[in-house]
């Protein structure tokens, strides 16, 4: 796994956005896998700014979100559908028909999940999948114990996830108990996974996911099996990585050896003196 330690949240967000720009420059009809949570908000702000500056065009893009709470209609302020509209879709030119967020109100979960998987396939598969990480090391809503081969399905949330997400609701009792989520196996089929993490609260799950054993107890650790995952973590989230000096060393040398293309994205994340070292 490629691990990039960004100096701070803003740099992490710029670098992730730069990778999306690079993809869309090469493939204007790319398929983006999108995540919710507080972590990717900065990346979405960057993408909106780049769109407004006419540096990126979403007219031919298709999107698939990772997950949605069961029981929340699309216009519920805490639904992931609402989150995506507020933070990204309302501000860019992605066509409405190209947006896919799992339904929080379907009554036929199994059939809906099969349909979602088929839609991803029909779109040609996901090119870049953005991912955050939960406090217990989950990706999307693949809670500990999820099969590492799992597909899109209905999932019961753990108490820790309910508590972690209670900050977005008036009371913990309002946090839904179930979600529809892409499976770990679904996520692993994306061509490039970008795992984002920021803040000291993520230091332990980040270390477990990147350097611990591959285990269903930390579903993000399944990314170690993926041929192309980039973890972009800020300093605080990197604090418990044993090999963090090595990751910095690798990134510096890549920046020096891979020429202008790499430097363009690297520059988005690193302060100038870092690149010059
Ligand atoms: C939820 C989402 C995940 C997200 C996680 C962390 O569980 N389903 O996709 O990664 O929250 O959220 P945050 O980025 O707010 O820490």
> What is the strand content?
15-25%
Count of discrete domains: 1
**Low-pLDDT windows of residues:** 270-277
CATH topology: Rossmann fold
Number of E strands: 10
The CATH architecture can be given as: 3-Layer(aba) Sandwich
Q: What series of H and E elements makes up the topology?
A: EHEHEEHEHEEHEHEHEHHH
Q: Class in CATH?
A: Alpha Beta
Oligomeric nature of the chains:
single chain
pLDDT averaged over residues = 93
Ligand species: 2-amino-2-deoxy-6-O-phosphono-alpha-D-glucopyranose
Would you kindly provide a written description of the structure presented here, covering whatever features stand out?
The chain has 277 residues and is α/β, with parallel strands linked by helices. It has a single domain (2-271), classed as Rossmann fold (3-Layer(aba) Sandwich). It has helices at 9-26, 41-52, 80-87, 109-122, 159-165, 184-188, 203-211, 244-257, 259-269, 272-276, and strands spanning 2-6, 31-34, 62-65, 67-69, 99-100, 128-131, 153-156, 178-181, 192-197, 229-234. The strands form 2 sheets. A 7-stranded parallel beta sheet has the order 1-10-9-6-2-3-5, with helices on both faces. The chain has a 3-stranded antiparallel beta sheet with strand order 4-8-7. Helix 1 packs across helix 2, helix 1 (9-26) packs antiparallel against helix 9 and helix 8 (244-257) packs across helix 9. The two termini are 23 Å apart. Residues 270-277 have low confidence and may be disordered. Residues 35-39, 66-67, 132-134, 140-141, 161 line the site of 2-amino-2-deoxy-6-O-phosphono-alpha-D-glucopyranose (GLP). Residues 35-39, 66-67, 132-134, 140-141, 161 line the site of 2-amino-2-deoxy-6-O-phosphono-alpha-D-glucopyranose.
């Amino acid at each position: 796994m490629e691990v990039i330690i960004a100096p701070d949240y803003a740099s992490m967000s710029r670098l992730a956005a730069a990778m999306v720009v690079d993809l869309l420059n090469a493939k204007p009809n790319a398929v983006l896998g999108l995540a919710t949570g507080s972590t990717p908000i900065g990346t979405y702000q960057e993408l909106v700014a780049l769109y407004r500056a006419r540096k990126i065009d979403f007219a031919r893009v298709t999107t698939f979100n990772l997950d949605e709470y069961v029981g929340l209609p699309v216009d519920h302020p805490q639904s992931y559908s609402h989150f995506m509209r507020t933070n990204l879709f309302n501000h860019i030119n992605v066509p409405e028909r190209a947006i896919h967020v799992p339904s929080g109100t379907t009554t036929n979960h199994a059939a809906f999940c099969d349909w979602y998987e088929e839609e991803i396939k029909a779109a040609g598969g996901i090119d870049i999948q953005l991912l955050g990480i939960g406090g217990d090391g989950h990706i999307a809503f693949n809670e500990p114990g999820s099969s590492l081969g799992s597909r899109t399905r209905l999932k019961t949330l753990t108490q820790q996830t309910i508590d972690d997400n209670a900050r977005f609701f008036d009371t913990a009792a309002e946090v839904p108990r179930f979600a529809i989520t892409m499976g770990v196996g679904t996520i692993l089929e994306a061509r490039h996974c970008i795992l984002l993490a920021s803040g000291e609260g993520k230091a332990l799950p980040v270390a477990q996911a990147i350097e611990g054993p591959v285990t269903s107890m930390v579903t993000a650790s399944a990314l170690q099996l993926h041929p192309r995952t980039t973890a972009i973590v800020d300093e605080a989230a990197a604090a418990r990585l044993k090999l963090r000096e090595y990751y910095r060393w690798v990134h510096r040398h890549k920046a020096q050896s891979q020429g202008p293309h790499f430097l363009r994205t690297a520059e988005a994340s690193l302060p100038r003196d870092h690149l010059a070292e």
